[in-house]
Structures are given as C-alpha cells and as structure tokens.
From TrEMBL:
<dbReference type="Pfam" id="PF08245">
    <property type="entry name" value="Mur_ligase_M"/>
</dbReference>
<dbReference type="InterPro" id="IPR036565">
    <property type="entry name" value="Mur-like_cat_sf"/>
</dbReference>
<protein>
    <recommendedName>
        <fullName>UDP-N-acetylmuramoylalanine--D-glutamate ligase</fullName>
        <ecNumber>6.3.2.9</ecNumber>
    </recommendedName>
</protein>
<dbReference type="Pfam" id="PF21799">
    <property type="entry name" value="MurD-like_N"/>
</dbReference>
<keyword id="KW-0131">Cell cycle</keyword>
<keyword id="KW-0963">Cytoplasm</keyword>
<comment type="similarity">
    <text>Belongs to the MurCDEF family.</text>
</comment>
<feature type="binding site">
    <location>
        <begin position="119"/>
        <end position="125"/>
    </location>
    <ligand>
        <name>ATP</name>
    </ligand>
</feature>
<dbReference type="InterPro" id="IPR036615">
    <property type="entry name" value="Mur_ligase_C_dom_sf"/>
</dbReference>
<keyword id="KW-0547">Nucleotide-binding</keyword>
<keyword id="KW-0961">Cell wall biogenesis/degradation</keyword>
<comment type="pathway">
    <text>Cell wall biogenesis; peptidoglycan biosynthesis.</text>
</comment>
<comment type="function">
    <text>Cell wall formation. Catalyzes the addition of glutamate to the nucleotide precursor UDP-N-acetylmuramoyl-L-alanine (UMA).</text>
</comment>
<dbReference type="InterPro" id="IPR005762">
    <property type="entry name" value="MurD"/>
</dbReference>
<keyword id="KW-0573">Peptidoglycan synthesis</keyword>
<keyword id="KW-0067">ATP-binding</keyword>
<dbReference type="GO" id="GO:0016874">
    <property type="term" value="F:ligase activity"/>
</dbReference>
Length: 450
C-alpha cells in the first residue's frame, strides 16, 4: 500500500455505507483524514455505523441533512448507488467540492496496476475469465469491485508485481479523478441506467471515464462490432486493441479459420471452448486480449477456456439430466440479456421467464424465440410473457406460481436434447430478494428432480 498524503488533515464526508462506505471510511481514517460518515439508516439499526463510531469516526445517521455542506468538507466519497441529484451531492458539486467513489481511493493507494472492465453486458464474465487466466498462469491477481471484494480494502495488500482485476459500473466511474487502469475494457454499450444518468450520452460519457486518464503506454480494449463505441473510443490517448466476432483483425482479437487469434497468433480452436453463446465469445475475446497484453501464457488461457462454463447466474450450466441440459441465467433482468441467452443455443429451448412488472412489454423477444418450443412463465409478468410467447408461435405455454413448479413443468414439456433455460427478462423483486436467490432456488429445484 502506498503512503499518500492526499487526505491528511482534510475534512472528508463519506456518504452512504454498505461495504464500500465502511472500507472507505476506515481507509481515510488510517490516511489521517478527519472523517464524518453520513448514512440514511438509523444508528440503532446500523451495525456498520456503530462499528465506525467505536473506531473514533464521527457518524451521523437517520437522514442526509443538507446542513452538512456548511461544515467545510474538502472531499466527499459517495456510495455509487446515491444519485447525483441527491441534494447533498448536487450541493457539493455546486460548491466545487470533489465527489469521488471508493474506486478512486483504491487506485491512489495501490502499488499494483489495474485491469478495469466496464460495459453494459458481459463485465462479470470477462472479469472472472481474466482473473482465472492469471490463476492458471500461477500469477497473483486481486479480484475487486462489483465482483470480488471491496477494492479499497483488498488493494492494501497488493504488490507491484500483481494486477488488480476490477469490474466497474458507470456509477463508480463517475466518481474518479486520477484513476488510470493500465488495461481498460469496454465490452459493449447499449441503453441502460437511463433513470440514473438521464440520457444515453451521459451514460456513455460515464463509461468512457475508464480511459480518460490513460496514456499512450496504456491499452483500451474495445468492441469493434459496435461502430458507435469505436467512434467514442477515438477520444482515448491509449493504444486501442479492438476485438470482433464478425471480422478478421490484424491488431486485435478475433476468430479466424476456426481459431481464436490475437494479433494474428492462434491461441485456441473455437471448438474447444466450453462457454456457449455469441455474447460470451465477445467476453472471451476481450479477456484473451487482456491476458495477452499482461503477458499471460497461451497454456493458461487455453486451460481456462477449455473448462470455464460460466459465472453463477449468467448462462451458468447447472446439470445434464435425462438428456436435458439446464442453464441458470437468473442475472437476465431485462430483455436485452434474455435475447443474448436465447441466441446462445441452437437446440430446442424450454424458457423459464417472469418476475417484477416494470411496465414494459416483451415483444422485442419475439425474433429471438424461434427455438423456444415451450415457455414456463411466473411472477407479475406471467400474463405479458404468455402473450408474447403466443405471438412468437411457441407451442406450449404454462403458468406457474413457484420455481419448483416451473422447473417440473419445464422438464415435462421437454425431450432429450433440449435446453431448459432460466432467463427471466425481469427483475426478481416480486418474489425474491435478489436475482441470486432466484437462481439458487432454480439450481436446487433442478438438482432435486426425480
């Protein structure tokens, strides 16, 4: 951990707790800042705040009083989930007070270089693949950010010869100042989080922050199959490394003559890759690019790609039973993600879908449902999805109340050689606390089939 004086004797407000807020507060305290923590949850219901209070850190709980801006804070470190229109955050910006996220702190103290991964889809799979490639090469890498542990905590023990492999959201990237990954990846860019960012342009601008401090000695890996993204990437000072699933590239990563290649070098036969789906091929090409730029061996890359079958809840292979292959894609909380999952398979599909009703329709799924022979629907959107399945010409539609019923109904509608796919196209909050809980219940139901 670097010894820095950036925050010494400065008044810093940590706004919002959760894991990243606690870590940020403790780190700033260690760095000699005068830290105040402000969290909406009342103190008597807030064990994290109570712990910080015991460490000698000032804590204000129960609300976000605007009067805090009168206390002369020089820096605010904000939880990424708190929007910028929050009165405290907007007021700080109006006063010219820097508003950072915990990622900036992690970068400032880290002795290890960063590989940063962002994009609309594929971040977690790409991040995991890169980390696994380092492990297979017996090289240490720290897994941090939205996947893994809180960055500002784990980088404290990172060594100069290590890499920090970190998944980054647009929310986190808005709160950086000096953050400069040696290798940055933008997997793709679609409309998302517009309720937070306001416009597509602002969302894209937040994503492009990942490269704003890069130099010609750094690398930006970017999806060449998205011309709009390539156009945005032209603003970077970094060396652009493109990847494409559709075109042959001399400089970047692509598929040529049945092989995954990087800068013209054959890395591995595509037929030997375990992870299914065109969308996952994008993630694979991005991760191979990062691994090669970080001097990982082809043998390590091959070992991972031959065995890696998916991140949990993201088109995760669960089990083959009586000739049916079961996949858990509970992370698919919108139609865009479900389109990708449906496109991953050429076999007949039994689709399990449904969840929280956000007021949207599902007819944009219809062109992707050509292989869907049966749909099992549930949750608040069951009727909407049943109607969409009917329009798509799906032969059989079954409504169920529980995941256990849905799995049993899906099996009964299937035949040998079919894929049974949970890809809900909806958030989970109508029936489950998280998409992880929904996926875990699916996995359990699949393993208890008799």
């Amino acid at each position: 951990m670097k010894t820095i004086t950036d925050f010494q004797h400065k008044k810093v407000l940590v706004l919002g707790l959760a894991k990243s807020g606690v870590s940020a507060a403790l780190l700033l305290h260690k760095l000699g800042a005068f830290v105040t923590v402000n969290d909406r949850k009342p103190l008597n219901e807030n064990p994290e705040a109570q712990h910080l209070l015991e460490q000698g850190i000032k804590v204000i709980c129960g609300s976000h009083p605007i009067e805090l801006l009168d206390e002369g804070f020089e820096v605010i470190v904000k939880n990424p989930g708190i929007p910028y229109h929050n009165p405290l955050v907007a007021g700080a910006a109006a006063k010219g007070i820097p508003v950072l996220t915990e990622i900036e702190l992690a970068y400032l103290i880290s002795e290890a270089p960063f590989i940063g991964i962002t994009g609309t889809n594929g971040k977690t799979t790409t991040t995991t693949l890169i980390h696994e490639m380092f492990k297979a090469d017996k090289k240490h890498a720290v897994l941090a950010g939205n996947i893994g542990q809180v960055a500002s905590e784990v980088v404290q023990n990172a060594q100069p010869e290590d890499y920090v492999v970190i998944e980054l959201s647009s929310f986190q990237l808005l709160g950086i100042n000096k953050f400069q990954p040696h290798i940055a990846i933008i997997t793709n860019l679609y409309d998302a989080h517009l309720d937070y960012h306001g416009t597509r342009e602002e969302y894209a601008k937040a994503k492009l922050n990942i490269t704003k401090n890069q130099t010609e000695n750094d690398f930006l890996i970017v999806n060449a199959d998205q011309p709009h993204l390539m156009k945005l990437a032209e603003t970077t000072k970094a060396t652009i490394i493109p990847f494409s699933t559709k075109s042959v590239l001399e400089e970047g990563a692509c598929v040529q003559d049945g092989y995954i290649t990087f800068r013209g070098e054959k890395i591995m036969a595509l037929a030997e890759v375990a992870l299914p789906g065109a969308h996952n091929l994008e993630n694979i090409l991005a991760s191979v690019s990062a691994a090669k730029l970080a001097n990982r061996t082809n043998e390590a890359i091959q070992a991972v790609l031959a065995t890696f079958s998916g991140v949990k809840h993201r088109t995760q292979f669960v089990r083959e039973w009586k000739g049916r292959r079961f996949y858990n894609d509970s992370k698919a909380t919108n139609t865009l993600a479900t389109k990708s999952a449906l496109s991953a398979f050429n076999q007949p599909i039994i689709l399990l879908a449904g969840g929280l009703d956000r007021g949207n329709g599902f007819d944009d799924l219809i062109p992707y449902m050509k292989n869907v022979k049966a749909a099992v629907v549930f949750g608040e959107t069951a009727d909407k999805l049943a109607e969409t399945a009917g329009k798509a010409g799906v032969q059989e539609v079954v409504k169920t109340d529980t995941m256990q019923e849905a799995v049993r109904a899906a099996y009964e509608a299937s035949a040998e050689g079919d894929v049974i796919l949970l890809s809900p196209a909806c958030a989970s909050w109508d029936q489950y606390k998280t998409f992880e809980q929904r996926g875990d219940i699916f996995i359990e139901a699949v393993h208890t089939l008799k």
